[in-house]
Specification:
Layout: H1 2-22, E1 32-34, E2 40-42, H2 47-55, H3 61-65, H4 71-83, H5 90-103
Antiparallel strand pairs: 1-2
Helix pairs in contact: 2-5, 4-5
């Protein structure tokens, strides 16, 4: 009887750990960025980290580097990628678009 109880407890613990790992979100890094007027603002999200976590799992950075778009163009591209399965929150999406528009 004790062996069965221990097996059930171990199985429940393992399932709990697996669920927690599977439900974990992407890590983001808070950054302070300089604004064009010389002040700084904290966006709370790092576009480069989002790019690495959300985009590079499907394609290389080379695909991004050869694109040269403004914010409107990157918005269309990011929304298209989200329709294809990229998982981003609204804040992550905005930080990514800002990073892409400023960098590429």
């Amino acid at each position: 009887m004790k062996l069965t109880r221990m097996t059930v407890i171990a199985a429940l613990l393992l399932m709990t750990v697996l669920v927690l790992v599977a439900c974990g979100g992407t890590a983001t890094t808070a950054v302070t960025t300089p604004a064009s007027d010389g002040t700084t603002s904290t966006s709370g999200l790092d576009g480069k980290t989002i790019l690495e976590n959300a985009c590079q799992s499907c394609h290389s950075l080379t695909v991004v580097e050869r694109e040269h778009q403004d914010a409107a163009g990157w918005t269309r591209t990011v929304e298209k990628m989200m329709q294809k399965g990229a998982k981003l929150t609204a804040d992550e999406k905005n930080a990514l678009i800002q990073y892409l528009a400023e960098t590429y």
